[in-house]
Model the fold of this input.
Amino acid sequence: MFSSPFLPLPTELKIATTTLRDDLLVVQVVSTKKRSCCPLCFCPAERRHSQYTRIVADLPCAGFRIQLILHVRRFFCDHADCIRKIFTERLPAFVLPWARLTVRLCEALQSVGLATSGELGTRLAERLAIQTSPTTLLRRIMVLPTGTVERVVELGIDDFSFRRGRK
Done:
């Protein structure tokens, strides 16, 4: 197992194998952490239950789309007061729970969406070897927090709604 400078991974993840299919680079990634903390009670657990695979998209590398196959483990929570008995190890800095995109790919999509939006953003992302849709770009923008509301200087009134009898 190794890590690559072209595909930087967190320290607890290592590359097991890589396979090239057309313009898609499939990378098998294995977690090397000895223990993981329960997401509810935050107690460390070492007793493994099982493992499963997650397929996650990542930023492109050298013109190839990247598909990560994460081999993630499940652990038993041995804390008596915790209601969760089995949990999956978390990788919050790299991929969020239930996400199908890495955090860095989400941030790249948000940047493309904020700069261009919609259809134009999709065409730009395609040139950058990122596969996305206009709806995905708009969803990534809508997830961002809104800015604080400043003091209102001018307020417009919708004349058309007054004409239709609405207030």
